[in-house]
Design brief:
Na+/H+ antiporter like fold, 30 helices, single chain, Rossmann fold, alpha/beta, 10-stranded mixed sheet, 10 strands
């Protein structure tokens, strides 16, 4: 029945369509005819319309609005993110924290560079009326950032290493604070703002000298693989204690500066203590209950996230109303987050990308727009800047180093702690902006202190390198007689397990003489400490499992790095390794496993490099060495030196087979150029050079795509 109806509808389809078109045309005609009455009103407006300037058929000015507030803000965010990422990447190339590049991007987009040479561009990108929107967005980014910094503080570590760390941290605050207050005596008359008293100015100078950038220090420690070392843990703990103490002092200074009178300051301080007690004794236990219930991502709903964010915002609001700034409230809200690391990590992941990548760079540029290096246009001002930098470095570096020495640290570690604690970075800019906002700091001294923050952050890396040069580390692994040292560098955990197993299989009967160092790098220096711990645990899971199977020990090294390839080569060259073992990977737009990153390893590493193309190898009973010329003798010498106990065959494509002295190698018959060895699938592993592999792949040799796994070896670079 349904089929018959369908057929009848199909036969009447054209008639129905014609009726629909006719009805539509009739309705449109009636509407258009009625609309003619409106033409009378339009004629009355002709004069006004005629008086407007003619724009022709298309008016670009009336169609495209460049200075609509929303379009301006979107353009500003785009320019800021691009400039921050580019300069951050450039800084990473010279082993500097990316935050330096982001700060420099802000200064360059401000009146110090872009506004100085291209004032029209500055007026177009950052018109005066748009700065309010930029400021509020940057403050939201700062609030989220300080909340994350508070969550990153591991109270457990503070309890474990509190003794020495508290002493070093207090010394690193007291010494530069006193020196900063003393310096303010000579600067007050020249750099104070109108109507300001000496006390808040002196206190702000003291706190500006005392601050350590905990997030920057933590990232430097991660990048250098020092997180699990006693030195790294001590430095992180000192910075954490310093952070809490410095923010407490800063809140006190802001309270005094805002209150003006002593009575008002005391009231603000009392309210601040009451607020801290409320957060610790009431809010923290409530949040701990929530954290115990919600420990996995799928149970953390939008309601839970809303509760956490509401806690942060309410805390920020209370501290702003009290008079100690909203940023302190956000920081305190992060500190009281439950000790459940999984809960903290999930919350941080939800906030980090937006705050660090999108909103926080706005703060750098807003600071840059207020920093005008051209204000330091007098030799005396530059001399003042040098004095400020000298006092900052001497107070922080010397105070931290001497305190560390008094706790029993070696001179090397003491100086390293001093260099790390001298890092100021972003946290310094936050404090300086607070001082500028409440009118304590003049534009000139604000600019000088921003330069001080840049210089002290920039010098951390070179200072650590110089200290390592003066005091060579005893940690550098030295070659031991009769042992074969392999550096396994990998990305996915499965790759680390396969490369570790290959190293054991290559050594065969000499596996007990094998020393493996497994290196995993996270290509992101901006991850939190909690994330770093989780990534490290996950990365080495397979490596440790394989090592247990072979009953051997493995030295694991975890770091963060902006340029993974450079850091792998640097690690291989710094150690005394016999072989760098890496896995193969094909670039997105190429089928060549031996180019790009792999070629960089072969060209820059001062030990033998092995690129492993895994095809499911489980054990090694037989190996085939394929060479293309006598210059590849190193393939035979290297393999024979292992004395592994498994059979090794060889073939030379052209010229005739290379004789191998002192090696248990059975030379196969010479093959014609362009051909391939017969029956290569019976081997477990094929060893060849990179150039031979490339030539054979272009010649479509069967062994390239055969069943045997392939290890491509490259000679050490000069």
């Amino acid at each position: 029945m349904a089929v018959n109806i369908t057929k009848r509808q199909g036969r009447g389809g054209p008639i129905i369509n014609l009726v629909m078109v006719a009805l539509t045309a009739l309705v449109l005609w009636l509407i258009l005819d009625a609309g003619k009455a409106l033409e009378v009103i339009a004629d009355m407006e002709d004069a006004a319309i005629a008086s407007r300037p003619s724009a022709g058929f298309f008016s670009l000015g009336d169609t495209i609005t460049f200075h609509h507030p929303l379009s301006v803000l979107i353009l500003q965010i785009l320019v800021i993110i691009l400039a921050s990422r580019i300069l951050g990447w450039i800084m990473s190339l010279i082993n500097q924290p990316t935050v330096i590049g982001e700060i420099m991007a802000g200064i360059m987009l401000g009146p110090s560079l872009l506004g100085l040479y291209f004032p029209g561009a500055t007026e177009f990108l950052f018109p005066a009326e748009s700065l309010g929107n930029l400021q509020f967005l940057s403050q939201i980014g700062l609030i989220l950032f300080m909340f994350i910094i508070g969550m990153e503080l591991d109270i457990g570590i503070l309890r474990q290493r509190a003794g020495a760390a508290v002493f070093i941290s207090n010394a690193s605050i007291v010494v530069p604070f006193v020196m900063g207050v003393g310096l303010s005596y000579f600067l007050f008359s020249s750099f104070t703002t109108r109507g300001n008293s000496f006390l808040p100015f002196a206190l702000f100078m003291g706190i500006a000298m005392s601050i350590t950038a905990f997030p920057v220090l933590a990232r430097i420690v991660q990048e250098r693989g020092m997180t699990r070392t006693p030195l790294g843990m001590t430095a992180i703990t000192c910075a954490a204690v310093n952070d809490i103490t410095a923010w407490g002092i800063l809140a006190l200074v802001v309270a005094i500066a805002n209150a003006g009178a002593i009575g008002g300051a005391l009231l603000t301080i009392l309210l601040s203590f009451a607020y801290v007690l409320l957060m610790l004794l009431v809010v923290r236990p409530l949040l701990s209950r929530i954290a115990r219930k919600y420990t996995v991502r799928e149970t953390i709903s939008k309601l839970v996230v809303a509760m956490v964010l509401s806690t942060m915002l309410i805390s920020a609001y209370i501290t702003e109303v009290i008079g100690i700034h909203a940023l302190f409230g956000a920081f305190m809200a992060g500190v009281i987050m439950p000790d459940n690391l999984r809960f903290k990590q999930i919350m941080a992941e939800k906030l980090e990308d937006v705050s660090l990548v999108l909103l926080l760079p706005l703060f750098f540029v807003y600071t840059g727009l207020r920093t005008e290096i051209g204000l330091i246009n007098d030799p005396d001002l530059w001399l003042t800047a040098l004095w400020v930098i000298a006092v900052a470095v001497t107070g922080k570096f010397a105070g931290s180093a001497l305190a560390a020495k008094l706790t029993g640290q070696s001179w090397r570690d003491s100086l390293m702690i001093g260099a790390l604690m001298n890092t100021r970075g972003l946290i310094e800019l936050v404090a300086l902006n607070i001082g500028y906002d409440i009118g304590v700091l003049s534009p000139e001294i604000f600019t000088i202190l921003v330069l001080m923050a840049l210089v002290t952050t920039f010098m951390t890396g070179p200072a650590m390198a110089f200290i390592q040069y003066l005091y060579p580390s005893g940690d550098a692994e030295k070659p031991l007689h009769g042992q074969f040292r392999v550096l396994v560098a990998f990305g996915p955990p499965e790759a680390g397990g396969r490369l570790t197993a290959l190293a054991h299989m290559l050594m065969g009967k000499r596996s007990k003489q094998l020393r493996i160092t497994a290196l995993h790098l996270t290509p992101n220096t901006e991850i939190s400490m909690e994330n770093a711990r989780q990534f490290e645990e996950e990365a080495f899971s397979k490596v440790n499992a394989v090592s247990s199977e072979y009953d051997s020990d493995v030295n694991t090294v975890y770091r963060t790095a902006e340029n993974v390839s450079q850091e792998i080569v640097r690690t291989a060259n710094r150690g005394k390794f016999d072989l760098l073992l890496v896995g193969s990977s094909r670039p997105l737009l190429s089928q060549d496993e031996t180019g790009g990153r792999a070629r960089y390893f072969f060209d820059n590493t001062r030990c033998m490099v092995g690129l492993f193309i895994d095809k499911g190898i489980e054990k090694i009973n037989s190996v085939l060495i394929i060479s293309a010329s006598e210059s590849e003798r190193y393939l035979y010498d290297f393999t024979a030196a292992l004395r592994p106990g498994y059979s090794i065959d060889s073939t030379c494509l052209l010229p005739p087979s290379v004789p191998v002295k002192g090696a248990e190698v059975n030379a196969l018959s010479t093959l014609i150029s362009g051909k391939h060895p017969a029956d290569t699938d019976r081997y477990d592993l094929i060893i060849a050079s990179v150039d031979c592999y490339r030539d054979q792949r272009e010649a479509e040799a069967e062994w390239v795509d055969g069943k045997a796994s392939i290890l491509l070896l490259g000679k050490p670079s000069v």
